[in-house]
Specification:
Radius of gyration: 13 Å
InterPro entries: DUF1289
Number of helices: 3
Organism: Rhizobium giardinii
Shape: globular
Order of helices and strands: HHH
Number of domains: 1
Number of strands: 0
Pfam families: DUF1289 (PF06945)
Protein name: DUF1289 domain-containing protein
Length: about 70
């Protein structure tokens, strides 16, 4: 199952979004109940949401590492 989780699980109290993935608590809790299409629709919203959180993770995330590795392989 596709998931945006990067194991940085902490909620921004101002926006209600997870600092790591951008999902809300409700979305995280119901993730396995959503259809693939519902999950994809939510995932399309996440980059814009992550721009609104007040702080970014301090360590390299799985998503950032995978992007860096893709660039290194090219």
């Amino acid at each position: 199952m596709e998931s945006p989780c990067i194991l940085v699980c902490s909620i921004d109290m101002k926006t209600g979004y997870c600092f790591g993935c951008g999902r809300t608590r409700d979305e995280i809790g119901a993730w396995t109940l959503y259809t693939s299409e519902e999950r994809r629709n939510i995932m399309e919203l996440l980059p814009a949401r992550l721009e609104t959180v007040e702080r970014k993770p301090r360590r390299e995330t799985r998503r950032a590492r995978m992007a860096r590795e893709r660039v290194d392989q090219e």
